[in-house]
Design a protein that fits this description.
The structure holds two protein chains of two kinds. By secondary structure, chain A is mainly α. Helices cover 79% and strands 0% of the residues of chain A. By secondary structure, chain B is an alpha/beta fold. Chain B is 35% helix and 25% strand. Chain B contains eight helices and ten strands. In chain B, a hairpin with a 2-residue loop joins strand 1 (21-32) and strand 2. Chain B is globular and about 50 Å long. The chains are: A mainly alpha, B alpha/beta. At the A-B interface, helix 7, helix 8 and helix 11 of A face strand 6 of B.
């Protein structure tokens, strides 16, 4: 539907070519970018390099966010003192737009992968943390009591009752976090890293290759959606609670 | 040492039979807006091994609070709870609870819910499976072992809740109005099931209810609670043959007696 509209608009030159290229041209550029042998055209064959670099960055940033956000969130949800210590601080930081971290991150980590991973991780942290807090808070007290009276110790209780009980909230947190990771990837790759999908988009802007920008946007959308599906499927495979309570 | 002494002191105060679970002058105050509200006032009672004790009282008399204290979920403001002369410290598998409703783990099947408490006790997979099968049969749920809690009826859920604690062989089974949300026939069925399990397993049971008929059908002894503050108003022995039918003269007599005790 949208595609048809796009074809009509571009075909009739309602919007000039340099603002919105024709779909066929975008398709061609995309094909060259993905499938051609390297180097005989600009961007040709760079796709796998870029995409693997970007995936690694998203994966590392998202991983850091999960490793910090999930335990901190569950702790805050269960222990009021931790929550009151962290919540003002974290909710304050949350209000700061990601882009204002960019200068600081560049001072701290220099230009390159560390800055990108930092920005991605920071952005993904908040939805994961907040949903874990909400999830841990709404776990039915009865379930925790039932575990305690059946002799379940603290540590096992956390993994066999608290986490599964909070799972219905944790899953959307992870999905939001992963989505935001892809969004912040482009910001993170503005900083002058040589490869990556975000870098390609910025590079294409410099060279006025709007078709390439559109290709980059579409690819990020597709990969983002794909990674969301993979996340949900793997959670469902690994956790009974993800499978049976969603 | 002082704890033991306290236990002995109170045992001499109590009735003749040896007791397994004792509440000794248990008081509970809740603090609301700076003022203390006394919910339980020096409640003392005991349950002998193998005895079925019903605690009956009107809504708001603190009977659920009392059960939470017996289970160890709440710490009393005063007094203590002794299990075989040892004061209890927090919840544990020696005093298992069947809650009012919806306390099963919704992400586990019936079988997994029943097996939950057996995990981490050094039993093999095979042993656990065997035990769970036995208890599934005891509560008549063999065909529903792979269902999830949300897929079975309220009565079946309470069967699972019963099986998952009986399998742990608790010294005392605590029940907090477990059949209150069931329809009349399911409730009668569950009461009959409980009586038969209790007889076969010689299980000590403390059963909280507000339903006079339930108390008379089940109990060896009924403890009637007063309200504002909650305290023991009377203890009534019910020495009737089981099963007990509402048409019998003695049954009607006991019902009348409880009714009078609960009134005002």
């Amino acid at each position: 539907m949208l595609l048809v509209l796009w074809m009509i608009v571009s075909g009739a030159q309602i919007i000039p070519e340099y603002l919105l290229p024709h779909p066929v041209r975008v398709l061609n550029t995309g094909w060259t970018y993905i499938a051609s042998k390297a180097a005989h055209l600009p961007y040709a064959g760079r796709f796998f390099d870029d995409v693997s670099a970007s995936i690694v960055r998203v994966f590392m940033g998202f991983g850091c966010a999960v490793l910090c956000g999930l335990p901190l969130g569950v702790l805050s949800g269960r222990i009021a003192m931790v929550n009151s210590l962290l919540s003002t601080f974290i909710n304050g930081l949350r209000a700061v737009p990601g882009i204002s971290w960019l200068p600081l991150a560049m001072v701290w980590f220099g230009i390159g992968i560390k800055t990108t991973v930092f920005l991605v991780g920071l952005a993904a942290f908040f939805p994961i943390y907040l949903n874990s807090v909400a999830g841990a808070q709404q776990v039915n007290l009865r379930l925790l009591q039932a575990g305690a009276m059946m002799g379940v110790r603290r540590l096992r209780g956390n993994f066999s009752i608290l986490l599964p009980g909070a799972m219905p909230q944790i899953i959307p947190g992870l999905r939001l976090g992963l989505g935001i990771s892809w969004a912040y990837l482009v910001l993170g790759e503005l900083t002058g890293v040589p490869n990556g999908l975000g870098a390609v988009i910025m590079d294409a802007r410099m060279l006025g290759r709007v078709d390439m920008i559109v290709v980059g946007i579409l690819l990020i959308a597709m990969i983002g959606r794909l990674s969301d599906v993979i996340l949900v499927v793997s959670l469902r495979t690994c956790f009974k609670s993800a499978r049976r309570m969603a | 040492m002082t704890r033991r002494a306290a236990g002995e002191r109170f045992e001499s105060k109590l009735s003749t039979h040896p007791s397994l679970l004792q509440a000794v002058e248990v008081s509970m105050d809740f603090h609301v807006n700076g003022s203390a509200l006394r919910v339980l006032d020096e409640v003392t009672f005991s349950a002998a091994p193998g005895e079925m004790v019903c605690i009956i009282g009107r809504s708001g008399c603190g009977k659920t609070t009392l059960l939470n204290i017996l289970a160890g979920f709440l710490r009393p403001s005063g007094g203590q709870v002794l299990l075989g002369h040892e004061p209890i410290r927090g919840p544990g598998p020696d005093r298992c609870v069947v809650f009012q409703e919806d306390s099963l783990f919704p992400w586990l099947t019936v079988r997994e819910n029943i097996a939950f408490g057996l995990k981490g006790r050094g039993k093999t997979h095979h042993q656990i499976r065997h035990e769970v099968d036995r208890y599934l049969a005891l509560v008549g749920l063999e065909e529903f072992s792979e269902y999830l809690p949300r897929e079975i009826s309220g009565g079946m859920k309470q069967r699972v809740a019963l099986a998952r604690v009986l399998i742990l062989h608790p010294q005392v089974l605590l029940m907090d109005e477990p059949f209150a949300s069931l329809d009349y026939h399911s409730r009668r069925e569950m009461q009959a099931l409980l009586v038969s399990l209790w007889r076969n397993m010689h299980q000590t049971v403390v059963f909280v209810t507000h339903d006079m008929d339930e108390a008379i059908v089940l109990a060896d002894r009924v403890i009637v609670m007063d309200m504002h503050p909650g305290r023991v108003r009377a203890e009534v022995d019910v020495p009737l043959e089981r099963p007990r039918e509402p048409e019998e003269t003695e049954y009607v007599f006991f019902r009348r007696r409880l009714y009078d005790l609960l009134k005002n």
